[in-house]
Amino acid sequence: xxxxxxxxxxxxxxxxxxxxxxxxxxxxxxxxxxxxxxxxxxxxxxxxxxxxxxxxxxxxxxxxxxxxxxxxxxxxxxxxxxxxxxxxxxxxxxxxxxxxxxxxxxxxxxxxxxxxxxxxxxxxxxxxxxxxxxxxxxxxxxxxxxxxxxxxxxxxxxxxxxxxxxxxxxxxxxxxxxxxxxxxxxxxxxxxxxxxxxxxxxxxxxxxxxxxxxxxxxxxxxxxxxxxxxxxxxxxxxxxxxxxxxxxxxxxxxxxxxxxxxxxxxxxxxxxxxxxxxxxxxxxxxxxxxxxxxxxxxxxxxxxxxxxxxxxxxxxxxxxxxxxxxxxxxxxxxxxxxxxxxxxxxxxxxxxxxxxxxxxxxxxxxxxxxxxxxxxxxxxxxxxxxxxxxxxxxxxxxxxxxxxxxxxxxxxxxxxxxxxxxxxxxxxxxxxxxxxxxxxxxxxxxxxxxxxxxxxxxxxxxxxxxxxxxxxxxxxxxxxx
Amino acid sequence: xxxxxxxxxxxxxxxxxxxxxxxxxxxxxxxxxxxxxxxxxxxxxxxxxxxxxxxxxxxxxxxxxxxxxxxxxxxxxxxxxxxxxxxxxxxxxxxxxxxxxxxxxxxxxxxxxxxxxxxxxxxxxxxxxxxxxxxxxxxxxxxxxxxxxxxxxxxxxxxxxxxxxxxxxxxxxxxxxxxxxxxxxxxxxxxxxxxxxxxxxxxxxxxxxxxxxxxxxxxxxxxxxxxxxxxxxxxxxxxxxxxxxxxxxxxxxxxxxxxxxxxxxxxxxxxxxxxxxxxxxxxxxxxxxxxxxxxxxxxxxxxxxxxxxxxxxxxxxxxxxxxxxxxxxxxxxxxxxxxxxxxxxxxxxxxxxxxxxxxxxxxxxxxxxxxxxxxxxxxxxxxxxxxxxxxxxxxxxxxxxxxxxxxxxxxxxxxxxxxxxxxxxxxxxxxxxxxxxxxxxxxxxxxxxxxxxxxxxxxxxxxxxxxxxxxxxxxxxxxxxxxxxxx
Lengths: 481, 487
Hints:
The structure holds two protein chains of two kinds. Chain A contains 18 helices and two strands.
């Protein structure tokens, strides 16, 4: 039942927040409180979860549309529990950030949509029925569309348009695939359905997830959306919404389409490698803070897909670990970018600089987050990337070389960001009187960094508990009777 | 003494209730003092719709096997019961939408014609031979022609009425001619007798079939027989548009399904292809033309053409699954359509001007409930989850896929993608533009809240979401109703 509660709590919170005519701050506070309770609920879920169990846990199953074999089935595997976990943490941080910056106008609408989004993302990670997964996957779009379109930056209209066109094109292909898969299998249950060798159905799913992640060359919506969205929404987009694609790859593409996956492995690996290098180079060349973080997200998603499609134990473990780590890193970076943008009024690198002087807390926090983002050895991201590298090495040394190149490029773009903000000669926008990180901001970022450091110390807590007996390939191939 | 045929009065009760209501409303227009005419007429019409809905529900519940009525000219089965229920409930909701519509002193006539039109449709969906088919069609069409032109002080209303008469008359003539050809080929009028005559590929029969399909397609407003739809939907009083978009489509689609499966099962290879082609043309034309619209009623008109396309995909499947999907689809579609037009009507009354996209600006923030409802209806029409529109599309697509028409699924998916552009554009105007920037102000200050209309919108929203959550029970009813057709 806990999975259902994890979905229903934020949805109920959204309803309450939307309906109660409370003052702005109280509304935000209420939403933040709901988000924190959600984190607590998730901790309860972890404590009740048996990481050695092979089945879906904490679940519920209710008949929904029997005649087509559609049911409301939710529950968690190890990896989906971790993904849901970063979701609730990231959403709490994002809502807290919105509360801190005093999300200006129409607070009720804003916070209700953020809570709705939380519920939708958790439902996506919990769905064990293909149709329910599609429903949750689409439901994410509704709040995101409005969040970007109403509270976004100047070019928000163009951003929402490209975002919706890309993601809906992918989603509708997926709908066709969902129908075809469900009808041929006679059930939509992800637990009961068998495998399929139909390449067209496979492609429908794969392209939908490739758009969502995004993967090269389906990333056209990414720069504009990440730049124009409110910064905490950009954090959610890159941190957790992109991970729904990882989940989709795992439980649908890899588990249900073994043969087509085999046929397309080389193509996907090459494209992922291209995404990694291309995204890293773009991040290195990006003229603004958000550009760097946005393109680095493209690169990291490429890395994660490399791990997924290596389709061996090391690669899959690494992909899940890096997904969790990247969700936290990317959120931290976006929120820090937000604090810098708030102080300087711009994210243009040329206009920034010298922020380290007199702002020790900001400098320290940004440096620590940056170090983890560039996968310094010993960090959780390094652990993930190393596992992925070891995994793809089994597919060919060339892929491993590309991963290594990606790690080097990551160091380049992250260090460029850090020096452009903190160290170089102050630009016109870096005003002398700009404040250091305020306690409220610190209180939001520190827990995220604490999670990252904890995972750096003990990455195995995620990587070894994501799949039963730490045998991902067996778990995935046995997921389909 | 002449033997009177046995008449199943219960089966005719929905029609008779509405005819009675129509009579009361019409008499009220003459006999009742002016100040209470609107109340009397509206209450009579609403009561008629409720009684009709109750009887339709009883019929739906108590007609497990199809029974012919009145010398086999009508039929009593679950298909008719379900269609009558949808029609009656739609009509009852429309009464609420119409309640505070501005009109000169012709309330009695309005509600009388509304009830009469619904009575005609309810008669029409129970037709079992070509004569009653035509009779029902003309009955509701004539009522609708007048309803469209009822706002005699608006030029567009008159224009709508005239266009509808001419094009609709043409459609009826085609249908009548087709019926004549079929009668010529088989010497039978009853649907099942036509099937039993086994005329095979007789040229007259095929030509007649084609003309009947075309005649019904006019009423379904499927492309390329849709030319009247945008102008009529735009010009007619908005409550009438709401009624037509939901009820006329329901009646005509149910009849299309019934006549094709009961009278022409042998020719199914021909008509499945014909219907599939009409569906594709409707999807393409409706969606692409909707992209260019700025008047919201016109936009919804083109959207209704594309929905006709979706529902015809289900007919083209030619299976019981397809029939079930069509009947399910009609429920959320009717709700969303009536609801969307009701919100347009509210805005229209507020601004006292036709509603285009610009005049929706900021509605989502100024009138949060109406705005959220329109948002819901737009998402539902676009087939987003959390609305019954999603399951409607899903069932249609899976029926088509099961019938082997995978290409229709792809066409439908592509059409959905295009449709998002204009549905989400409406949402963009609702929430992402501010009305104050455009200096939109209600004429004569904020009008009083319209509780009747709010109730209608709420009912539509409840059905839209309810058909998503409780899809299976409705699908069961649809499945039973589909089982009364011979597949």
